[in-house]
Amino acid sequence: MIELQLLLGGLQNGALYALTAAGFALIFGATKVFHVAHGATFTLAGYVFIGAWNAGWHPALGVLAAMAAAVAFGIAMERLVYRPIGRHEGGFFTVFVAAFGVSIVVQNVIAMIAGRGFANVDSPLATATEVMPDLFLAPVFWISIVAAVAMFLALTIFLSRHPAGVALRALAQNADLLRAYGLSSGKLSVLAFALGSVLAAPAAILTAMTSGINEAIGNHVMLISMAATIVGGVGSLRGAALAGLLLGVAESVVLVFLDTQWAEGASFMVLFAFILFRPSGMFGAAVAR
Amino acid sequence: MIAYLSNIATLAAIFGLLAATLNFMVGQAGIFSVAHAVFMGLGAYSGAQVALLLVPDPFLACLAAAVVAGGLSLCLALPALRVRGEYFVAASLGLQMMAVTLFTEAKGLTGGMGGLVGIPQPRIFGVVVPVLPLALVALVVFLLLMAAMQRGSFGRTLGAIRDAESAAEALGKNVAVAKALAVAFSAAGAGVAGALFALHLSFVNVESFTLEQSVLIMAMLIVGGTGTLLGPILGAVLLLSLPAALSFITFIPPTDIGSVQQIIYGGAMALLMIFRPAGLLGDQKRGRSEA
Protein backbone atom coordinates (compact mmCIF):
# COMPACT_ATOMS: atom_id res chain seq x y z
CA MET A 1 0.00 0.00 0.00
CA ILE A 2 2.94 2.28 0.61
CA GLU A 3 3.58 2.22 -3.13
CA LEU A 4 0.08 3.50 -3.90
CA GLN A 5 0.41 6.15 -1.21
CA LEU A 6 3.69 7.33 -2.72
CA LEU A 7 2.25 7.25 -6.22
CA LEU A 8 -0.67 9.45 -5.19
CA GLY A 9 1.64 11.80 -3.32
CA GLY A 10 3.75 11.95 -6.46
CA LEU A 11 0.68 12.77 -8.53
CA GLN A 12 -0.17 15.64 -6.21
CA ASN A 13 3.36 17.03 -6.38
CA GLY A 14 3.54 16.32 -10.07
CA ALA A 15 0.34 18.26 -10.76
CA LEU A 16 1.88 21.29 -9.06
CA TYR A 17 5.19 20.81 -10.89
CA ALA A 18 3.22 20.54 -14.11
CA LEU A 19 1.58 23.93 -13.54
CA THR A 20 4.86 25.64 -12.72
CA ALA A 21 6.64 23.98 -15.60
CA ALA A 22 3.87 24.91 -18.04
CA GLY A 23 4.34 28.53 -16.99
CA PHE A 24 8.08 28.30 -17.57
CA ALA A 25 7.58 26.57 -20.92
CA LEU A 26 5.01 29.18 -22.01
CA ILE A 27 7.46 31.99 -21.29
CA PHE A 28 10.40 30.20 -22.89
CA GLY A 29 8.42 29.17 -25.94
CA ALA A 30 6.91 32.58 -26.64
CA THR A 31 9.75 34.92 -25.71
CA LYS A 32 12.81 32.63 -25.92
CA VAL A 33 13.81 33.89 -22.46
CA PHE A 34 15.09 31.17 -20.14
CA HIS A 35 13.25 32.61 -17.16
CA VAL A 36 15.48 31.33 -14.37
CA ALA A 37 13.76 33.65 -11.91
CA HIS A 38 10.55 31.62 -12.31
CA GLY A 39 11.50 29.92 -9.05
CA ALA A 40 11.60 33.32 -7.38
CA THR A 41 8.06 33.99 -8.65
CA PHE A 42 6.98 30.78 -6.93
CA THR A 43 8.68 31.68 -3.64
CA LEU A 44 7.28 35.20 -3.70
CA ALA A 45 3.72 34.02 -4.37
CA GLY A 46 3.95 31.44 -1.59
CA TYR A 47 5.22 33.93 0.97
CA VAL A 48 2.65 36.56 0.00
CA PHE A 49 -0.07 33.97 0.63
CA ILE A 50 1.45 32.99 3.98
CA GLY A 51 1.75 36.66 4.93
CA ALA A 52 -1.88 37.31 4.00
CA TRP A 53 -2.98 34.20 5.93
CA ASN A 54 -1.07 35.23 9.03
CA ALA A 55 -2.48 38.74 8.77
CA GLY A 56 -5.94 37.18 8.99
CA TRP A 57 -7.08 37.95 5.46
CA HIS A 58 -9.77 35.89 3.81
CA PRO A 59 -8.06 33.00 1.98
CA ALA A 60 -9.56 34.03 -1.36
CA LEU A 61 -8.04 37.47 -0.90
CA GLY A 62 -4.72 35.80 -0.10
CA VAL A 63 -4.91 33.77 -3.31
CA LEU A 64 -5.60 36.94 -5.30
CA ALA A 65 -2.72 38.75 -3.61
CA ALA A 66 -0.36 35.86 -4.35
CA MET A 67 -1.41 35.81 -7.99
CA ALA A 68 -1.04 39.58 -8.26
CA ALA A 69 2.44 39.40 -6.73
CA ALA A 70 3.46 36.65 -9.16
CA VAL A 71 2.19 38.59 -12.16
CA ALA A 72 3.79 41.83 -10.99
CA PHE A 73 7.13 40.12 -10.46
CA GLY A 74 7.01 38.41 -13.86
CA ILE A 75 6.18 41.64 -15.66
CA ALA A 76 8.84 43.55 -13.72
CA MET A 77 11.44 40.96 -14.74
CA GLU A 78 10.41 41.32 -18.37
CA ARG A 79 10.40 45.11 -18.39
CA LEU A 80 13.38 45.84 -16.13
CA VAL A 81 15.77 42.95 -16.73
CA TYR A 82 15.13 40.93 -19.87
CA ARG A 83 14.13 43.75 -22.18
CA PRO A 84 17.15 46.01 -21.46
CA ILE A 85 19.43 43.02 -21.96
CA GLY A 86 17.65 42.05 -25.15
CA ARG A 87 18.08 45.60 -26.42
CA HIS A 88 21.85 45.29 -26.50
CA GLU A 89 21.62 41.79 -27.87
CA GLY A 90 22.98 40.05 -24.81
CA GLY A 91 23.36 36.32 -25.22
CA PHE A 92 21.55 33.71 -23.17
CA PHE A 93 24.29 33.60 -20.53
CA THR A 94 23.87 37.31 -19.82
CA VAL A 95 20.16 36.69 -19.31
CA PHE A 96 20.82 33.63 -17.18
CA VAL A 97 23.26 35.41 -14.87
CA ALA A 98 21.03 38.45 -14.46
CA ALA A 99 17.98 36.32 -13.66
CA PHE A 100 20.00 34.18 -11.27
CA GLY A 101 21.22 37.34 -9.55
CA VAL A 102 17.66 38.54 -9.09
CA SER A 103 16.69 35.12 -7.68
CA ILE A 104 19.45 35.38 -5.10
CA VAL A 105 18.24 38.84 -4.12
CA VAL A 106 14.62 37.67 -3.77
CA GLN A 107 15.66 34.62 -1.74
CA ASN A 108 17.64 36.68 0.74
CA VAL A 109 15.17 39.54 1.01
CA ILE A 110 12.51 36.98 1.89
CA ALA A 111 14.89 35.38 4.40
CA MET A 112 15.44 38.75 6.05
CA ILE A 113 11.75 39.62 6.23
CA ALA A 114 10.14 36.27 6.95
CA GLY A 115 13.06 34.49 8.57
CA ARG A 116 14.89 31.39 7.42
CA GLY A 117 13.48 27.91 7.50
CA PHE A 118 10.17 26.35 6.62
CA ALA A 119 6.95 28.32 6.80
CA ASN A 120 3.48 26.98 6.12
CA VAL A 121 -0.17 27.63 6.77
CA ASP A 122 -2.26 25.34 8.95
CA SER A 123 -5.27 24.62 6.86
CA PRO A 124 -7.89 21.96 7.57
CA LEU A 125 -7.67 21.15 3.86
CA ALA A 126 -4.27 19.59 4.42
CA THR A 127 -5.35 17.09 7.09
CA ALA A 128 -5.30 13.63 5.65
CA THR A 129 -8.06 11.15 6.27
CA GLU A 130 -7.99 7.43 5.69
CA VAL A 131 -9.95 6.82 2.51
CA MET A 132 -8.97 3.17 2.13
CA PRO A 133 -7.11 0.86 4.46
CA ASP A 134 -3.60 2.34 4.86
CA LEU A 135 -4.28 5.04 2.30
CA PHE A 136 -4.39 8.62 3.48
CA LEU A 137 -5.56 11.50 1.33
CA ALA A 138 -6.13 15.16 2.16
CA PRO A 139 -8.59 17.41 0.33
CA VAL A 140 -5.51 19.24 -0.94
CA PHE A 141 -4.83 16.25 -3.17
CA TRP A 142 -8.08 16.76 -5.08
CA ILE A 143 -7.68 20.53 -5.08
CA SER A 144 -4.22 20.20 -6.61
CA ILE A 145 -5.38 17.86 -9.36
CA VAL A 146 -8.49 19.92 -10.13
CA ALA A 147 -6.57 23.21 -10.05
CA ALA A 148 -3.90 21.85 -12.38
CA VAL A 149 -6.37 20.39 -14.85
CA ALA A 150 -8.63 23.47 -14.80
CA MET A 151 -5.80 25.96 -15.27
CA PHE A 152 -4.23 23.89 -17.98
CA LEU A 153 -7.53 23.57 -19.83
CA ALA A 154 -8.17 27.31 -19.50
CA LEU A 155 -4.71 28.01 -20.85
CA THR A 156 -5.16 25.65 -23.77
CA ILE A 157 -8.52 27.19 -24.68
CA PHE A 158 -7.05 30.68 -24.38
CA LEU A 159 -4.13 29.82 -26.62
CA SER A 160 -6.26 28.18 -29.28
CA ARG A 161 -9.38 30.43 -29.29
CA HIS A 162 -8.63 33.93 -28.04
CA PRO A 163 -6.94 36.28 -30.55
CA ALA A 164 -4.25 37.20 -28.02
CA GLY A 165 -3.57 33.50 -27.40
CA VAL A 166 -3.22 32.85 -31.11
CA ALA A 167 -0.88 35.84 -31.33
CA LEU A 168 1.19 34.36 -28.50
CA ARG A 169 1.59 31.13 -30.43
CA ALA A 170 2.54 33.15 -33.48
CA LEU A 171 5.17 34.94 -31.40
CA ALA A 172 6.59 31.58 -30.44
CA GLN A 173 6.87 30.55 -34.06
CA ASN A 174 8.13 33.65 -35.80
CA ALA A 175 8.58 36.97 -34.02
CA ASP A 176 9.64 38.88 -37.16
CA LEU A 177 6.60 37.82 -39.15
CA LEU A 178 4.40 38.75 -36.19
CA ARG A 179 5.81 42.25 -36.22
CA ALA A 180 5.33 42.44 -39.98
CA TYR A 181 1.60 41.86 -39.37
CA GLY A 182 1.58 44.90 -37.10
CA LEU A 183 1.33 43.17 -33.74
CA SER A 184 3.50 44.31 -30.86
CA SER A 185 5.89 41.63 -29.72
CA GLY A 186 6.64 43.73 -26.63
CA LYS A 187 3.04 43.70 -25.41
CA LEU A 188 2.73 40.00 -26.14
CA SER A 189 5.93 39.27 -24.18
CA VAL A 190 4.40 41.04 -21.19
CA LEU A 191 1.29 38.89 -21.63
CA ALA A 192 3.40 35.72 -21.80
CA PHE A 193 5.20 36.64 -18.59
CA ALA A 194 1.94 37.50 -16.84
CA LEU A 195 0.29 34.22 -17.85
CA GLY A 196 3.37 32.11 -17.14
CA SER A 197 3.87 33.70 -13.73
CA VAL A 198 0.26 33.36 -12.64
CA LEU A 199 0.52 29.60 -13.19
CA ALA A 200 3.17 29.43 -10.47
CA ALA A 201 0.89 31.00 -7.83
CA PRO A 202 -1.57 28.14 -7.18
CA ALA A 203 1.29 25.67 -7.04
CA ALA A 204 3.06 27.87 -4.48
CA ILE A 205 -0.08 28.25 -2.36
CA LEU A 206 -0.85 24.53 -2.34
CA THR A 207 2.77 23.71 -1.52
CA ALA A 208 2.64 26.20 1.35
CA MET A 209 -0.44 24.33 2.64
CA THR A 210 1.08 20.87 2.48
CA SER A 211 4.81 20.50 2.85
CA GLY A 212 5.55 24.16 3.54
CA ILE A 213 7.99 26.37 1.71
CA ASN A 214 11.31 27.91 2.65
CA GLU A 215 13.21 30.82 1.17
CA ALA A 216 15.41 28.52 -0.93
CA ILE A 217 12.60 26.50 -2.50
CA GLY A 218 12.83 28.66 -5.60
CA ASN A 219 16.03 26.88 -6.64
CA HIS A 220 14.32 23.53 -6.55
CA VAL A 221 11.25 24.83 -8.40
CA MET A 222 13.41 26.47 -11.02
CA LEU A 223 15.39 23.28 -11.60
CA ILE A 224 12.22 21.18 -11.86
CA SER A 225 10.64 23.64 -14.30
CA MET A 226 13.78 23.70 -16.39
CA ALA A 227 14.10 19.94 -16.34
CA ALA A 228 10.42 19.47 -17.22
CA THR A 229 10.65 21.93 -20.10
CA ILE A 230 13.64 20.14 -21.56
CA VAL A 231 12.31 16.63 -20.94
CA GLY A 232 8.93 17.61 -22.35
CA GLY A 233 10.44 19.15 -25.43
CA VAL A 234 10.95 22.88 -25.81
CA GLY A 235 7.95 24.62 -27.31
CA SER A 236 5.46 22.05 -26.10
CA LEU A 237 3.27 23.09 -23.16
CA ARG A 238 1.67 19.67 -23.09
CA GLY A 239 5.12 18.09 -22.97
CA ALA A 240 6.27 20.32 -20.13
CA ALA A 241 3.15 19.62 -18.08
CA LEU A 242 3.39 15.89 -18.66
CA ALA A 243 7.09 15.91 -17.83
CA GLY A 244 6.38 17.89 -14.66
CA LEU A 245 3.87 15.24 -13.64
CA LEU A 246 6.37 12.52 -14.51
CA LEU A 247 9.14 14.15 -12.47
CA GLY A 248 6.83 14.54 -9.47
CA VAL A 249 5.86 10.88 -9.62
CA ALA A 250 9.48 9.81 -10.18
CA GLU A 251 10.64 11.81 -7.15
CA SER A 252 8.01 10.17 -5.03
CA VAL A 253 8.16 6.60 -6.28
CA VAL A 254 11.95 6.46 -5.99
CA LEU A 255 11.37 6.58 -2.22
CA VAL A 256 10.23 2.96 -2.41
CA PHE A 257 13.84 2.03 -3.07
CA LEU A 258 15.91 4.91 -1.69
CA ASP A 259 15.97 7.51 1.07
CA THR A 260 14.43 10.96 0.72
CA GLN A 261 17.68 12.75 -0.05
CA TRP A 262 17.80 10.96 -3.41
CA ALA A 263 14.36 12.23 -4.48
CA GLU A 264 15.75 15.29 -6.24
CA GLY A 265 18.44 13.12 -7.77
CA ALA A 266 15.77 11.05 -9.51
CA SER A 267 14.64 14.13 -11.43
CA PHE A 268 18.12 14.83 -12.60
CA MET A 269 18.78 11.30 -13.68
CA VAL A 270 15.70 11.64 -15.91
CA LEU A 271 16.96 15.02 -17.18
CA PHE A 272 20.46 13.66 -17.79
CA ALA A 273 19.15 10.65 -19.66
CA PHE A 274 17.07 12.88 -21.90
CA ILE A 275 19.91 15.29 -22.56
CA LEU A 276 22.26 12.49 -23.50
CA PHE A 277 19.88 10.35 -25.52
CA ARG A 278 17.00 12.53 -26.65
CA PRO A 279 17.86 16.22 -26.33
CA SER A 280 14.73 17.26 -28.22
CA GLY A 281 12.54 15.87 -25.44
CA MET A 282 9.35 13.88 -25.58
CA PHE A 283 7.29 16.15 -27.82
CA GLY A 284 9.86 18.54 -29.23
CA ALA A 285 10.91 18.81 -32.80
CA ALA A 286 14.54 17.86 -33.32
CA VAL A 287 16.60 20.85 -32.21
CA ALA A 288 19.87 22.05 -33.60
CA ARG A 289 22.70 21.59 -31.15
CA MET B 1 46.54 41.22 11.33
CA ILE B 2 49.27 39.61 9.24
CA ALA B 3 47.62 36.23 9.70
CA TYR B 4 44.28 37.74 8.71
CA LEU B 5 45.69 39.34 5.59
CA SER B 6 47.57 36.21 4.58
CA ASN B 7 44.36 34.21 5.03
CA ILE B 8 42.51 36.60 2.71
CA ALA B 9 45.39 36.52 0.23
CA THR B 10 45.44 32.71 0.21
CA LEU B 11 41.70 32.52 -0.36
CA ALA B 12 41.98 35.19 -3.06
CA ALA B 13 44.63 33.13 -4.87
CA ILE B 14 42.56 29.94 -4.57
CA PHE B 15 39.35 31.57 -5.74
CA GLY B 16 41.26 33.48 -8.40
CA LEU B 17 42.41 30.11 -9.72
CA LEU B 18 38.82 28.80 -9.63
CA ALA B 19 37.44 31.83 -11.43
CA ALA B 20 40.27 31.79 -13.97
CA THR B 21 39.76 28.12 -14.83
CA LEU B 22 36.00 28.63 -15.09
CA ASN B 23 36.81 31.55 -17.37
CA PHE B 24 38.76 29.18 -19.61
CA MET B 25 35.65 27.03 -19.99
CA VAL B 26 33.20 29.93 -20.35
CA GLY B 27 35.25 32.59 -22.09
CA GLN B 28 37.44 30.41 -24.30
CA ALA B 29 35.34 27.37 -25.06
CA GLY B 30 31.85 28.80 -24.63
CA ILE B 31 30.81 26.02 -22.23
CA PHE B 32 28.65 27.75 -19.62
CA SER B 33 29.06 25.52 -16.61
CA VAL B 34 27.48 26.25 -13.24
CA ALA B 35 29.03 23.17 -11.67
CA HIS B 36 32.53 24.43 -11.01
CA ALA B 37 32.28 23.85 -7.25
CA VAL B 38 31.77 20.13 -7.98
CA PHE B 39 35.29 19.84 -9.34
CA MET B 40 36.65 22.00 -6.57
CA GLY B 41 35.00 19.53 -4.21
CA LEU B 42 36.38 16.47 -5.97
CA GLY B 43 39.84 18.00 -5.79
CA ALA B 44 39.43 18.99 -2.16
CA TYR B 45 38.33 15.50 -1.10
CA SER B 46 41.05 13.71 -3.06
CA GLY B 47 43.74 16.14 -1.91
CA ALA B 48 42.55 15.80 1.68
CA GLN B 49 42.52 11.99 1.49
CA VAL B 50 46.07 11.95 0.08
CA ALA B 51 47.24 14.20 2.90
CA LEU B 52 45.36 12.20 5.52
CA LEU B 53 46.22 8.68 4.38
CA LEU B 54 49.55 8.98 2.57
CA VAL B 55 51.84 11.98 2.98
CA PRO B 56 50.96 15.65 3.41
CA ASP B 57 52.92 16.47 0.28
CA PRO B 58 51.13 19.35 -1.47
CA PHE B 59 52.37 18.39 -4.93
CA LEU B 60 51.09 14.86 -4.61
CA ALA B 61 47.78 16.17 -3.24
CA CYS B 62 47.41 18.62 -6.13
CA LEU B 63 48.33 15.94 -8.65
CA ALA B 64 45.75 13.53 -7.25
CA ALA B 65 43.17 16.31 -7.18
CA ALA B 66 43.87 17.28 -10.79
CA VAL B 67 43.66 13.66 -11.97
CA VAL B 68 40.42 12.91 -10.13
CA ALA B 69 38.71 16.18 -11.08
CA GLY B 70 39.99 16.07 -14.65
CA GLY B 71 38.96 12.44 -15.05
CA LEU B 72 35.48 12.86 -13.66
CA SER B 73 34.99 15.99 -15.75
CA LEU B 74 33.71 13.60 -18.37
CA CYS B 75 30.36 13.83 -16.55
CA LEU B 76 30.26 17.44 -17.66
CA ALA B 77 31.88 16.95 -21.04
CA LEU B 78 29.31 14.39 -22.18
CA PRO B 79 26.29 16.71 -22.00
CA ALA B 80 28.46 19.54 -23.37
CA LEU B 81 28.97 17.46 -26.51
CA ARG B 82 25.25 16.83 -26.92
CA VAL B 83 23.64 20.16 -26.17
CA ARG B 84 24.47 23.84 -26.00
CA GLY B 85 23.21 27.01 -24.43
CA GLU B 86 20.29 26.78 -22.02
CA TYR B 87 20.21 23.00 -22.20
CA PHE B 88 23.76 22.70 -21.04
CA VAL B 89 23.26 25.14 -18.18
CA ALA B 90 20.33 23.01 -17.03
CA ALA B 91 22.45 19.86 -17.29
CA SER B 92 25.29 21.37 -15.30
CA LEU B 93 22.84 22.60 -12.65
CA GLY B 94 21.56 19.05 -12.41
CA LEU B 95 25.08 17.72 -12.07
CA GLN B 96 25.74 20.24 -9.30
CA MET B 97 22.69 19.13 -7.32
CA MET B 98 23.49 15.44 -7.81
CA ALA B 99 27.08 15.98 -6.71
CA VAL B 100 26.01 17.64 -3.46
CA THR B 101 23.82 14.63 -2.68
CA LEU B 102 26.68 12.27 -3.50
CA PHE B 103 29.16 14.27 -1.40
CA THR B 104 26.75 14.14 1.52
CA GLU B 105 26.01 10.44 1.20
CA ALA B 106 29.43 8.96 0.32
CA LYS B 107 30.45 9.17 3.97
CA GLY B 108 33.39 6.80 3.58
CA LEU B 109 35.16 9.12 1.13
CA THR B 110 33.94 12.54 2.10
CA GLY B 111 32.90 12.31 5.74
CA GLY B 112 29.37 13.40 4.77
CA MET B 113 28.05 16.51 6.50
CA GLY B 114 30.70 16.24 9.21
CA GLY B 115 33.40 16.47 6.55
CA LEU B 116 37.06 15.58 6.78
CA VAL B 117 38.80 17.04 9.81
CA GLY B 118 42.42 17.38 10.85
CA ILE B 119 43.97 17.53 7.40
CA PRO B 120 47.71 17.93 8.13
CA GLN B 121 49.60 21.03 7.07
CA PRO B 122 51.44 20.69 3.78
CA ARG B 123 55.10 19.69 4.05
CA ILE B 124 57.77 19.77 1.37
CA PHE B 125 60.71 17.49 2.28
CA GLY B 126 59.52 17.51 5.88
CA VAL B 127 59.34 21.29 6.16
CA VAL B 128 55.93 22.83 6.89
CA VAL B 129 55.06 25.43 4.26
CA PRO B 130 52.10 27.81 4.34
CA VAL B 131 49.55 27.45 1.56
CA LEU B 132 49.88 31.04 0.35
CA PRO B 133 53.05 30.60 -1.74
CA LEU B 134 51.77 27.28 -3.08
CA ALA B 135 48.48 28.87 -4.13
CA LEU B 136 50.26 31.79 -5.76
CA VAL B 137 52.53 29.43 -7.68
CA ALA B 138 49.55 27.35 -8.81
CA LEU B 139 47.72 30.49 -9.90
CA VAL B 140 50.68 31.80 -11.89
CA VAL B 141 51.33 28.40 -13.49
CA PHE B 142 47.72 28.05 -14.60
CA LEU B 143 47.56 31.65 -15.83
CA LEU B 144 50.72 31.13 -17.89
CA LEU B 145 49.38 27.85 -19.27
CA MET B 146 46.11 29.52 -20.22
CA ALA B 147 47.85 32.50 -21.79
CA ALA B 148 50.02 30.12 -23.82
CA MET B 149 47.01 28.08 -24.90
CA GLN B 150 45.06 31.19 -25.80
CA ARG B 151 47.75 32.12 -28.30
CA GLY B 152 48.43 28.61 -29.49
CA SER B 153 46.46 26.43 -31.86
CA PHE B 154 44.37 24.78 -29.12
CA GLY B 155 43.04 28.11 -27.88
CA ARG B 156 42.24 29.23 -31.40
CA THR B 157 40.41 25.98 -32.08
CA LEU B 158 38.35 26.52 -28.93
CA GLY B 159 37.60 30.10 -29.92
CA ALA B 160 36.47 28.89 -33.33
CA ILE B 161 34.19 26.31 -31.73
CA ARG B 162 32.76 28.94 -29.41
CA ASP B 163 32.01 31.34 -32.23
CA ALA B 164 30.81 28.89 -34.88
CA GLU B 165 30.77 25.23 -34.00
CA SER B 166 29.63 23.97 -37.39
CA ALA B 167 32.22 26.04 -39.21
CA ALA B 168 34.99 24.73 -36.95
CA GLU B 169 33.83 21.19 -37.58
CA ALA B 170 33.72 21.82 -41.31
CA LEU B 171 37.33 23.00 -41.17
CA GLY B 172 38.33 19.62 -39.80
CA LYS B 173 38.61 20.50 -36.12
CA ASN B 174 37.76 17.63 -33.81
CA VAL B 175 35.11 19.42 -31.80
CA ALA B 176 34.43 16.58 -29.38
CA VAL B 177 38.07 16.11 -28.37
CA ALA B 178 38.73 19.85 -28.09
CA LYS B 179 35.68 20.40 -25.88
CA ALA B 180 36.45 17.41 -23.68
CA LEU B 181 40.07 18.56 -23.26
CA ALA B 182 38.99 22.11 -22.40
CA VAL B 183 36.57 20.81 -19.78
CA ALA B 184 39.17 18.42 -18.37
CA PHE B 185 41.80 21.14 -18.14
CA SER B 186 39.42 23.54 -16.45
CA ALA B 187 38.19 20.88 -14.03
CA ALA B 188 41.76 19.86 -13.20
CA GLY B 189 42.52 23.48 -12.34
CA ALA B 190 39.46 23.62 -10.11
CA GLY B 191 40.61 20.38 -8.51
CA VAL B 192 44.02 21.83 -7.69
CA ALA B 193 42.31 24.87 -6.18
CA GLY B 194 40.12 22.53 -4.14
CA ALA B 195 43.12 20.58 -2.82
CA LEU B 196 44.83 23.82 -1.79
CA PHE B 197 41.58 24.95 -0.18
CA ALA B 198 41.43 21.73 1.86
CA LEU B 199 45.09 22.03 2.92
CA HIS B 200 44.61 25.67 3.83
CA LEU B 201 41.52 25.21 6.00
CA SER B 202 42.60 21.73 7.23
CA PHE B 203 38.88 20.94 7.16
CA VAL B 204 36.40 20.38 4.33
CA ASN B 205 32.76 19.48 4.21
CA VAL B 206 30.04 19.52 1.61
CA GLU B 207 28.93 23.07 2.57
CA SER B 208 31.84 24.48 0.56
CA PHE B 209 30.83 22.79 -2.69
CA THR B 210 27.18 23.70 -3.09
CA LEU B 211 25.36 25.56 -5.83
CA GLU B 212 25.96 28.77 -3.86
CA GLN B 213 29.71 28.27 -4.20
CA SER B 214 29.42 27.64 -7.94
CA VAL B 215 27.39 30.81 -8.26
CA LEU B 216 29.91 32.75 -6.20
CA ILE B 217 32.72 31.61 -8.50
CA MET B 218 30.59 32.53 -11.49
CA ALA B 219 29.87 35.93 -9.95
CA MET B 220 33.62 36.54 -9.54
CA LEU B 221 34.11 35.76 -13.19
CA ILE B 222 31.17 37.91 -14.29
CA VAL B 223 32.12 40.88 -12.14
CA GLY B 224 35.71 40.76 -13.39
CA GLY B 225 34.83 40.09 -17.00
CA THR B 226 34.73 36.89 -19.04
CA GLY B 227 37.36 36.30 -21.65
CA THR B 228 39.98 38.42 -19.93
CA LEU B 229 43.04 37.00 -18.19
CA LEU B 230 43.06 39.20 -15.10
CA GLY B 231 39.34 39.95 -14.79
CA PRO B 232 38.53 36.79 -12.80
CA ILE B 233 41.34 37.56 -10.33
CA LEU B 234 40.02 41.08 -9.81
CA GLY B 235 36.52 39.66 -9.34
CA ALA B 236 37.78 37.15 -6.77
CA VAL B 237 39.58 39.83 -4.77
CA LEU B 238 36.57 42.16 -4.86
CA LEU B 239 34.00 39.56 -3.83
CA LEU B 240 36.23 38.09 -1.11
CA SER B 241 36.85 41.48 0.45
CA LEU B 242 33.11 42.18 0.49
CA PRO B 243 32.44 40.30 3.77
CA ALA B 244 35.37 42.08 5.41
CA ALA B 245 34.10 45.43 4.19
CA LEU B 246 30.57 44.67 5.37
CA SER B 247 31.74 43.84 8.87
CA PHE B 248 32.82 47.49 9.22
CA ILE B 249 29.30 48.71 8.57
CA THR B 250 27.84 48.70 12.04
CA PHE B 251 24.14 49.24 11.44
CA ILE B 252 23.60 45.85 9.82
CA PRO B 253 22.59 43.30 12.47
CA PRO B 254 25.17 40.49 12.51
CA THR B 255 22.53 37.81 11.84
CA ASP B 256 21.65 39.45 8.55
CA ILE B 257 25.20 39.93 7.28
CA GLY B 258 25.04 36.71 5.24
CA SER B 259 21.82 37.79 3.58
CA VAL B 260 23.06 41.31 2.88
CA GLN B 261 26.19 39.85 1.32
CA GLN B 262 24.13 37.57 -0.92
CA ILE B 263 21.85 40.44 -1.89
CA ILE B 264 24.89 42.47 -2.91
CA TYR B 265 26.29 39.57 -5.01
CA GLY B 266 22.94 38.95 -6.64
CA GLY B 267 22.19 42.60 -7.24
CA ALA B 268 25.67 43.21 -8.65
CA MET B 269 25.28 40.27 -11.03
CA ALA B 270 21.92 41.48 -12.30
CA LEU B 271 22.94 45.15 -12.62
CA LEU B 272 26.24 44.34 -14.31
CA MET B 273 24.46 42.15 -16.84
CA ILE B 274 21.99 44.92 -17.61
CA PHE B 275 24.43 47.80 -17.82
CA ARG B 276 27.89 46.37 -18.41
CA PRO B 277 27.53 42.81 -19.72
CA ALA B 278 31.22 42.24 -20.37
CA GLY B 279 32.28 42.85 -16.75
CA LEU B 280 34.59 45.45 -15.27
CA LEU B 281 37.67 44.57 -17.30
CA GLY B 282 35.94 43.15 -20.36
CA ASP B 283 36.02 44.55 -23.83
CA GLN B 284 32.60 46.19 -23.97
CA LYS B 285 32.19 45.95 -27.72
CA ARG B 286 32.95 42.26 -27.75
CA GLY B 287 30.69 41.56 -24.81
CA ARG B 288 27.71 42.97 -26.63
CA SER B 289 27.68 40.40 -29.33
CA GLU B 290 28.68 37.21 -27.61
CA ALA B 291 28.89 37.29 -23.82
Explain this structure.
Chain A: Belongs to the binding-protein-dependent transport system permease family. LivHM subfamily. Chain A: Keywords: Amino-acid transport, Cell membrane, Membrane, Transmembrane, Transmembrane helix, Transport. The complex is a heterodimer of chains A (289) and B (291). Chain A has a domain of 201 residues. Chain A has 11 helices and 2 strands; from the N terminus they run ααααββααααααα. In chain A, strands 1-2 form a two-stranded antiparallel sheet. Chain A is globular and about 60 Å long. The termini of chain A are far apart. The N and C termini of chain B lie far apart (40 Å). Chain B has a two-stranded antiparallel sheet with strand order 1-4. Chain B is an all-alpha fold and 291 residues long. The C terminus of chain B is likely disordered. At the A-B interface, helix 3, helix 4, helix 9 and helix 11 of A face helix 4, helix 5, helix 11, helix 13 and helix 14 of B.
